[in-house]
């Protein structure tokens, strides 16, 4: 998600949502408030990615930024908060945009954190329906990792992680070939061994 900046620098240009911390807020509370004000979104999951404080990162004043990654599997069609015009863009398009401050570096770091998170957590399954095929899960990994994965190797890796997925006993037809087994998310919180890119 990006916003159109209403003020200089880069007025009218794209930027990551954000703002200033109020004196009575901790960092996560401020991140949630800014996300809600600028995009209208409430999130369950936020993870701190990094802190940015180059002396010249903001031409207006000396500022520091703390970057959070929000994970939202079921995104609304579009949302605008009270502070800014929020828009959904493919990440490649946003990376190609002329972003202000150090937002390109921040976005790159957030993408890398999301890609890494798929290696050691079961979060990818939250982007599937409650009952899914290994092919459905593989497509999530392929989209986030930005590359095609060998279906047989991926299935072997997923099934080698005890508790990651559970067979339902049902099958579905995916159009060609034999019907695919269906699964639900297991009870693990950490993937061991991790799934490597």
From TrEMBL:
The family database entries (PANTHER family) matched by this protein are listed as: ADP-RIBOSE PYROPHOSPHATASE (PTHR43736), SLR1690 PROTEIN (PTHR43736:SF4)
Q: Which UniProt keywords apply?
A: Hydrolase
Q: Pfam family of this protein, just one?
A: NUDIX
Q: Which family does it belong to?
A: Belongs to the Nudix hydrolase family.
Indicate what this protein is called per its UniProt record. Answer: NUDIX hydrolase
Query: Record keywords: Hydrolase included?
Result: yes
GO molecular function annotation: hydrolase activity
Gene3D superfamilies listed in its UniProt record: Nucleoside Triphosphate Pyrophosphohydrolase (3.90.79.10), Winged helix-like DNA-binding domain superfamily/Winged helix DNA-binding domain (1.10.10.10)
Keyword Hydrolase belongs to the record: yes
Q: Enumerate the InterPro entries for this protein.
A: Nudix_hydrolase (IPR020476), NUDIX_hydrolase-like_dom_sf (IPR015797), NUDIX_hydrolase_CS (IPR020084), NUDIX_hydrolase_dom (IPR000086), WH-like_DNA-bd_sf (IPR036388), WH_DNA-bd_sf (IPR036390), WHD_NrtR (IPR054105)
UniProt xrefs under CDD domains: NUDIX_NadM_like
Recorded source organism is Aeromicrobium chenweiae
């Amino acid at each position: 998600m990006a916003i159109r900046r209403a003020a200089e620098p880069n007025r009218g240009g794209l930027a990551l949502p954000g703002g200033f911390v109020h004196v009575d807020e901790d960092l996560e509370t401020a991140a949630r408030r800014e996300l809600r004000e600028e995009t209208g979104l409430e999130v369950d999951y936020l993870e701190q990615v990094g802190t940015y404080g180059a002396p010249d990162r903001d031409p207006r004043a000396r500022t520091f930024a703390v970057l959070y990654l929000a994970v939202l599997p079921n995104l609304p069609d579009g949302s605008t908060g009270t502070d800014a015009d929020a828009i959904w863009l493919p990440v490649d398009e946003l990376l190609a945009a002329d972003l202000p401050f150090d937002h390109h570096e921040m976005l790159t770091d957030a993408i890398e954190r999301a890609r890494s998170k798929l290696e050691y957590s079961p979060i990818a399954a939250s982007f599937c329906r409650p009952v899914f095929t290994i092919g459905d899960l593989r497509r999530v990994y392929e989209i986030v990792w930005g590359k095609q994965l060998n279906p047989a190797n991926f299935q072997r890796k997923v099934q080698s992680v005890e508790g990651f997925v559970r067979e339902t006993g049902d099958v579905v037809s995916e159009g060609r070939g034999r019907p695919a087994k269906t699964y639900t998310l297991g009870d693990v919180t950490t993937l061991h061994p991790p799934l490597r890119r």
